């Protein structure tokens, strides 16, 4: 299962990716999925949102929202997760 993190601006998303990769967490920048109507236009895909969010908080990088990604027959479905 994967998660999508959104940010208030592109700068925060890029800083988040850099911090996560340096700490050894798998992460990748992606365009904001059309199923998500918040954020700056880019998002970050991660596997472990709890550990990722903890690391980002320690680095003073604010995550706007977290979405759990699940698949149905035709699409990805994004359900917001409480921070």
TrEMBL record:
Pfam families attached to this UniProt entry: Se_S_carrier
Residue ranges of domain Putative Se/S carrier protein-like in the record: 3-68
InterPro entries per UniProt: Se/S_carrier-like
UniProt name for this protein: Putative Se/S carrier protein-like domain-containing protein
Species the sequence originates in: Desulfosporosinus youngiae DSM 17734
